[in-house]
Each structure stands twice: as C-alpha cells, then as structure tokens.
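Task 17 of the worksheet. Students: predict the tertiary structure of the chain below and write it out as structure tokens. Keep your answer in the requested format; marks are given for formatting as well as content.
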Amino acid sequence: MPTTQSPQDEQEKLLDEAVQAVKVQSFQMKRCLDKNKLMDALKHASNMLGELRTSMLSPKSYYELYMAISDELHYLEVYLTDEFAKGRKVADLYELVQYAGNIIPRLYLLITVGVVYVRSFPQSRKDILKDLVEMCRGVQHPLRGLFLRNYLLQCTRNILPDDGEQAEDSEELTGDINDSVDFVLLNFAEMNKLWVRMQHQGHSRDREKREKERQELRILVGTNLVRLSQLEGVNVDKYKQIVLSGVLEQVVNCRDSLAQEYLMECIIQVFPDEFHLQTLNPFLRSCAELHQHVNVKNIIIALIDRLALFAHREDGPGIPC
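Model answer:
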C-alpha cells in the first residue's frame, strides 16, 4: 500500500518543485539578458513569477518561494538600471509589461520596472508611486496580495519622497513627504484588510491553524508602520494630525482582535517616545474602542513601560511636568 504523505512532506515537495521551476526560468532570463534579448528575458521572468500564483503553499512555504524569486528579480532590476543609464527608453518598457498575461507576474514586473523608472526620471515619482499602490488592488487573494504589497514596500523604501532631498521648483512633480505618508498609509490599510480577511478563509475547523498562519504573517503588515517611522519628514505634528489618526482609524475599524492587539503594540514600539507623549489622548481613546477580546491591559502596560524608560533615560529630557 502506498503511504500517504504528511502535510509537511507535501509542502516540502510542492515548494521544491516551485523552486526548481524558478531556477530554470531565472537561468533562462539571465541568459537572455546577457545576450541583450530583453523581451525574451521578460517572458522568462513572467513565467518565473507565475509560480507565485499558487494557492497550494502554506504561508511559510510561500515566503520561501517569494524570497527566492525576489533575489532573481534583483538581477533584472540591476540590468534595467544599467540599460536605462545607457539611454534605453524606460517609458516604453513600463507600458509594455502591463500586457503580461496574468496579473501576479504583471504587477511584480510593473513594480520592478517602475522603481527603475523613478530612479531614472525622478520627476515621475509621484505619479508612478500612486499608480503602483493603486494597481496592487487588482490582487485580492489575501496571501498573494500581502506578499505583492510587501514587495512594493521593500522596493520603494529608498525612493519615497522625504524632507531635504528635492528642489523646491520640482516639488509638484516629484512629490513630497505627504505623498509618502499617503502611499504607506494606503498600502498599510490594504494589507491589513487582506490580513484580517484570512480568518474567514477555509473551514471553521481550521480556525486555529489560520490564526497561527496569521501570526506568522503579522510582520508584513507591521513593516508599514516601521516605514512610516523612518520618514524624516514625519515630525510630531504630522504624526499627530495625519499618521496616527490614519493608523488608528484602520486599527479600530477592522474589528479584529488579533490585528488590533498586534498593531497597537507595534505603534508603541516603532514611533519615538516624544510622539507618544504628545498623543496620549487619541491613543487611549482608541484603546477604549477596541474589540472586547483585546487585552487592553497589556497594551497600556507596554505604553507605560516605554514611557518609564524614557523618563529615566540619562541623556533624555525626561517627561515634562
């Protein structure tokens, strides 16, 4: 009698097959690039990205596949950057990859080409970033959508408009810190919706398994908050008026205890102490609006612990009286 494979063995087999397919296509892609056959290379890149259309892999296995493909896409990005530096027309290619057959390969290629486009033509930055974050709405499958938007966030981290890095006369064209905040807040909102939606997939008997998988993926959503905290142009006023209010609105409205508890603690950890001191009232008001199953006590303790460390810091001003 043939032995049935365990779920873990089945996952390993599926992942191995997908990774092998990626290796074959990436090899062909690189060979075409070395021969300057860009269109053929893009076809192989599209075939490689087609592996990310799977619904058979667990989040952990999907992550490993995603990382393998991301590494190969970096090779394509470097090649395109060099080509555009030599004078190749970027606009034509950005239009061209929009005709890729399936939406997953199309959007990954659009992000890859779009980032190179922005580096080559900074005046297009505002429009391209808005274009990309909106286009990603085309993928509504929770797992595939989360990783696609994570790729967008990772690829754009060095091209988001920030304070002190652009000429005044080009501000309207290249975007400013407000455009970056809007970009990340929208990406965060969409990723959180996808993450929350995961709990409703599959049979009710698999609920515990889904919760575990969601825990494994939470860092993808939290990375948006990290990115917001890294923007130099987000001062305490902008944080109070735009960033925190936008984040808290999403957290409260999602009505999901797992998401709310994680994201409230994320806010506490990633933003500066001075910001928390200036926004205690809205933060605490939001705590009162969280789902009844959220352990609000733990959130408050985490905030108090953070501020207590700040108050006793030798190099800091302490908490004002």
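Marker's comment: The CA atoms of residues 193 and 254 lie 7 Å apart. The longest helix spans residues 7-34.
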